Description:
four-stranded mixed beta sheet, 6 helices, alpha/beta, 214 residues
Amino acid sequence: MKLKAFMGAIALCLSTGHLTQSKAEELSVANFVPPQHHTNSFLFKWFGEELEARSGGSLKLKVYPAGQLGAGPVQQYKRAVEGVADITFGLQAYTPAIFPKSMLIIPPGVSTTAKEATERLLAVYDEHRAIIDELAGETFSLKGAESFDGADAKSLEIMQGADQMAKVTQITVSDEERAKMDAAVQKGLESIFADYDSRGITNAREIYNAINQR
């Protein structure tokens, strides 16, 4: 099993903005990662271009990276709710009490790419997708997954070409060791489900199994 970056692990939070009809409105994006991070250089660059094109130029995007509108990822959801920014980029793992069910995408499962994990999470919560417009919902999520998968591939390429890798020995995990790892994962999942149940979320196992159905 591989634990991959998950875009669904990513929360796009929109706060209520006041848009004007007379001139282009600039929407602010609060991001805690540096300017060169792929969510800025790829994802929000694409999103800004799409937003401007689809709005006929009435909407523009301005990204504030590296915590310019507030340091750290923990308060990103709150910054959107309180209107510090129109859009914030965050990870639900930093606010597990707010997004407990979507956290179930994080434990090891069958997904091997960010795109696959995103599609699986969206499929489980399909009934809620009608309230999200086509750009900010599935389209944005899958573009974000593409961003993370591309970053993974680039990192692997850099690692393989690094001089330090000549001193690294790569091994294949034996079937016996793999079985031990899988058993440890199952034991950990049981602890997770028990914790959810103690908090009144009794369908955590059902959600996890739905996400990871083969």
